[in-house]
């Protein structure tokens, strides 16, 4: 009788890949977690309880077949594990690195609820796909039959790229338009290398190009090329621009030199990692070196900023957030990593204004949590007389992102938007008010997770294929 390879969580403790010591890792932008060895990946996969109702899969936006590829990994059948993983996720090696597993799959693991410690799902997912790349199992699109229809995709972030891959594999001709000089969107310029090394993103771009996806870069739609021109060139258009307009923060002194936007700060740092010359880093305006840095915000972007500032050699780094640790939107794992690296968190603290020109400090005030708001979260309330000045030479605003006014920017008034400024699109299909025009990702749902953008891209690609098939049928009649 074959030995049972699974259900070993009773005897085997949870074990993550080794994390580089904070004193070492804060000196560079390399990823902080080591790779699993083959034996360790098998061992940790074997802890899965193979639930009849796998909550890990249910709570994954992509509904990845997690128990199946964990079992295959435990049995040493890695190529099959990769194929199962790739069947539902276009970029598993990226999700394995940057998904907040503590809030999604791992946070809903059944053995975690019973006190045994969750299966290390994200680390195994990363290991499976990194091994697949090394072994040459990851293949570019090679459609069995080419179609004469084409789709134009505006935006080369995760949503647009996931749709491009799925459409191209179905034989559709795909052109991706993007405003930046490199594809990848926030994967390339918004997420630091210590979470997602850039070669991981670039090899996916190269794979898409090898499969026949055309990229038109440095293309600002509405300026370099009109939306109508793109629409006229293709049988369908997919809008996947993401949301790049930073939420601002007013108050006295908010226009002072030394107060910068998170995306500008992260983009400059990521450009440097590519070897680009970045004037704002050379002149110091977007560099934290030797400065007292204050980051305002409590999401994952704020965590990226504080940890980048540490690596740039800041004198000190503090993060101000108006709620407490339990109520912050960012990953708890990232908070822990930041604290290990020397970041100080000032919980229940909100900015009221700024002092100095250039900036010399943040006028802050202490908060307390009151009654729950409309979302059910406790609303922060000011504590009278608690004002103080937090010294700062560089203040980074990481307050989230809002959509740009695309109908105005592109001169397309008939493109309907919601009251939040996001594009109004049908649920799952992504169909907008315009014939043959679809939208996915953050520009539809608001600032969200990469994994949701991938899910949207895949679903809408399928809807576009249905639309193209309908157009073909009509043309044949």
Describe the overall structure:
The structure is a single chain. This protein has 477 residues and is α/β, with parallel strands linked by helices. The chain has 3 domains: 8-135, Alpha-helical ferredoxin (Fumarate Reductase Iron-sulfur Protein, Chain B, domain 2, Orthogonal Bundle); 150-243 and 403-476, FAD/NAD(P)-binding domain; 246-400, FAD/NAD(P)-binding domain. Helices cover 36% and strands 15% of the residues. It has 19 helices and 16 strands. The chain has helices at residues 22-25, 38-45, 55-58, 66-74, 78-88, 92-98, 110-113, 121-135, 158-169, 186-189, 198-210, 227-233, 262-273, 279-282, 300-311, 332-340, 406-410, 442-445, 450-476; strands spanning 150-154, 173-177, 214-216, 236-239, 245-246, 259-261, 292-296, 316-320, 344-346, 349-355, 361-372, 378-382, 388-391, 394-397, 401-402, 437-439. A 5-stranded parallel sheet has the order 3-2-1-4-16, with helices on both faces. A 5-stranded parallel sheet has the order 6-14-7-8-9. Strand 10 (349-355) and strand 11 form a beta hairpin. Helix 13 (262-273) crosses helix 15 and helix 15 (300-311) packs parallel to helix 16 (332-340). It is globular, with a radius of gyration of 23 Å.
